[in-house]
Specification:
It is a single chain. It contains 9 helices and 11 strands. It has helices at 9-13, 57-64, 77-84, 93-96, 129-132, 195-202, 204-220, 226-239, 245-259; strands at residues 19-25, 28-34, 37-41, 46-50, 66-71, 101-102, 111-112, 117-125, 134-144, 153-157, 161-165. A hairpin with an 8-residue loop joins β6 (101-102) and β7 (111-112).
Length: 275
């Protein structure tokens, strides 16, 4: 066993997708990236989330007592990261990132039109805010885009990058969590990603094939990063099921481009997300 810093516990236990939180103060909407949240209760539905005084959204949430939790998908990964790396007191994030504010029904902050789902929330309990920056929010209404084709969400993982989560379906469509594809596509370079974990994600025969793939390519092309090799391997596997040669080629190009993009990284959970 190898010890790791206790501060990285979030990467092992974090249960849900990276979300965007919209607030409004004096008529001006803002949006921040958030990774620390959890379900607390079924009825009424309560959501716990950590938004601290280091976040620009903190003041707006405390004063208005309302927000919207929006759930982005993998195609918004770069936007999600960039939102978390700038502050709402310096820039209009809706304008800067081309987000579409959609009027909510019960709260002042807007929904985000580009997101898969939006949850209108109101503060139910703020007694732990001073001590832990922990807000308990009651979910008032949920809006989902049933026509959205991309449904894979983002999850933060240790040490600091994004994994995509398989397609999510509303619980009204399935009484239990759906059994989805085991493919978990990385959307950042994999320099720090465990080789054994990569094999386990691919699973079975594909995992064994990847071992041979890495052994050969690391010997023949030592100049290429492991992230590049994983991109090629996953893209090739994905392309097998592509409906046409053109879509197969596009799949390979896009996967490699995303995997090797240095700017698509998750925000620092220590407080670098300025809100």
């Amino acid at each position: 066993m190898k010890e790791m810093p206790a501060s990285h516990a979030y990467g092992l236990l974090e249960p849900g997708p990276i979300v965007l939180v919209t607030t409004a103060l004096n008529g001006k909407p803002n949006v921040m990236t958030m990774g620390f949240h959890m379900m607390v209760q079924h009825a009424p539905p309560l959501i716990g989330c950590v938004i601290g005084p280091w976040d620009h959204s903190y003041r707006a949430l405390r004063e208005s007592r309302e927000c919207v939790i929006a759930i982005p998908t993998v195609d918004l990964a770069r936007t999600v990261v960039d939102i978390g790396n700038c502050s709402g007191d310096e820039v209009d994030k809706f304008e800067k990132f081309g987000l579409s504010p959609v009027s909510a029904q019960d709260v002042g902050p807007p929904l985000i039109g580009e997101c898969l789902a939006n949850i209108e929330c109101r503060i139910a309990d703020d007694t732990m805010v001073e001590t832990y920056s922990l807000f308990l929010l009651e979910a008032l209404r949920i809006w989902i885009d049933p026509d959205r084709k991309e449904r894979r969400t983002l999850s933060s993982s240790w040490p600091s990058f994004f994994l995509t989560v398989p397609d999510r379906k509303p619980r009204t469509e399935c009484a239990c969590h759906p059994v989805a594809s085991i493919k978990a596509w990385m959307v950042t370079p994999l320099a720090d990603f465990s080789f054994l974990r990569t094999i386990s994600v691919l699973g079975g025969a594909a995992g064994a094939s990847s071992l041979v793939f890495f052994t050969v390519t690391e010997a023949v092309t030592p100049g290429f990063s492991r992230g590049f090799r994983v991109g090629v391997l996953l893209s090739a596997l994905d392309a097998v099921s592509a409906p046409s040669t053109l879509s197969a080629l596009l799949t390979i190009v896009l996967r490699i481009a995303i995997l090797n993009s240095p700017s698509v990284r998750s925000p620092d959970h220590s407080g670098a997300c300025t809100g």
